[in-house]
Each structure stands twice: as C-alpha cells, then as structure tokens.
Fold this sequence. Notes:
By secondary structure, the protein is α/β, with parallel strands linked by helices. The chain has a single domain (3-193), classed as Alpha-Beta Barrel (TIM Barrel). It has 12 helices and 10 strands. The protein has helices at 3-12, 28-31, 40-44, 58-64, 97-102, 119-134, 155-167, 181-186, 203-215, 225-228, 233-246, 250-260; strands spanning 20-24, 53-56, 73-76, 78-79, 92-93, 107-112, 140-144, 172-175, 192-195, 220-223. It has an 8-stranded parallel beta barrel, surrounded by 6 helices. Helix 9 crosses helix 12 and helix 11 (233-246) runs antiparallel to helix 12 (250-260). It is globular and about 45 Å long. Ribulose-5-phosphate is lined by residues 24, 26-27, 55, 111, 143, 145, 195-197, 222-226. Residues 24, 26-27, 55, 111, 143, 145, 195-197, 222-226 line the site of ribulose-5-phosphate.
Amino acid sequence: MDWGLHNRLSRIIKPDTHRTVMLAVDHGYFLGPTHKLEDARETIKPLVSYADALMLTRGILRTSVDSGVDVPIVLRVSGGSSIIGKDLSNEGITTCIEDAVRLNVAAVALSIFVGTDFEHQTLMNLATLVDQAQAYGIPVLAVTAVGKELGKRDVRFLSLSCRIAAELGAGFVKTYYCDEFEKVTESCPVPVVIAGGPKLETELDAFKMAHDAVEKGAAGVDMGRNIWQSEHPVAMIKAVRAVVHQNMTPDEALDVFEKNK
Ligand code: 5RP
C-alpha cells in the first residue's frame, strides 16, 4: 500500500489496537435535521476529543467544526437523494477530490447500494472515487448502505456487499452488525467497521453489539445515533472506546458509562 494512503488510514484505525471509534455525524445528508443533530456544532463539540475520526459532509465540516481541531476527517462525498425522495439509493459523487484535499481529509466515504436499481451506478461511483482518491493517497471508506430496506441486514447480503467494495478498491468498509458476523469479516480483505444503526433500547445493547462485532473481527465502529442520541453522549463514547480499544465486556462498559454520566 502506498505510504501516504497507509499513513492516513493509520490515523483513523489506530496502529496500537488496530481499531477505531469513528463518530458518524453525516446523517443530515439525506435525513435533514436528525434528532439531536439539529445543531451539529453543539452535538460534535463535547465528543470530538474522544473520537478517532469524524465522519461528516463538507457542509457540516466547514460550518460546524473548528479548523484547529485535531481529529482525522472522513468526508462523506456521496449523496443526491433524500428520505422523502423517490429512491434513496440514487446517489452520485457530491464532492470533488480537490475539495477533499483542500479540507485535509484522512479518507473519503461513499455509499454503495448492492441489489438495488442503482447497484451499477453506485458501484461505478465507488470505482471512480477510488481512482480519484488513490491519486492523492486518500483511502476510500465504502458504506454498504441498505436504503430503506433494513431487512437486508443479513450475513449473505452484507458479505456480498463488503467483498464487492473491497474488490473495487475500498481501503475500508462500513457495514451493519449481523448474526454470523465473522463470515463478513473473514471474507473481506480490508478492515470492516460497523454502523450503530438506530438507537437501541438500552446502552448495554449498544455495548454488546460493539463487543460482539470486534470479537468477530471488526476493526471498530463508526457510530452515530447510539452515541449522540443518548442522554449522556460523552459517557457513551467513553464506554464504547473501552469496548473497542480495551476489550472491555459489555458489563464493564456499562460501569464506565455509569461512572461518567
Ligand atoms: C448513513 C451513514 C451513517 O453515518 C451511519 O449509519 C452511522 O451512524 P449510525 O450509528 O447512527 O447508524 O453512513 O449512511
């Protein structure tokens, strides 16, 4: 792997643990003002120093994050559809690579929608983005999105999507946790991180999911709503870090959460 590309990836996936706790705050790109992310600056500010990377769009980066901040940026560069539109999977590349370079990003992120009407288009988006980003030594995070069809979150579909993303040159892949998750990580030659998905019923549920994912080979999490929709977001991210970087059990993480809330 090219030195620059490897160096950027090492800023996100920490070399000492080979894991990462990314904070996802890109939801507005198709959901608009998501609950508890209405004022992105307010949401991000107390959490940023606990995140190994911030995943967001250029609009929120420029308006809502101080440029002096010392956190690797994973810039979402796909979009073009909304939750109320015809088809969420009809995405294109929304940001040119020169703007990503200007923003000094550590990686760029793009969603692929395997199995949808826009499978070909979004896979070609990925291939194009890999070509563009590779020229600057910037890794690409492929997000194996499922659109509105959350039922697709099974091991066959997610293994297929992650493997295709890696084959097309993604440097790392983001997917959902599922039963038999080890099959997803074992058949994907690049690091896999999990999204948290909608807020779970309890904090312990979120710790269990993160714990089981890393135990089954995930390189960590790219979590949003389960952190910043919590009543105690800082305690939440600290506890998730304990699971991901210190291999704490879900119960131990709950202790961390209780002590920090
Ligand atoms: C949407 C995304 C989000 O960043 C992702 O879903 C992570 O956030 P959450 O943990 O809230 O699911 O990529 O496509």
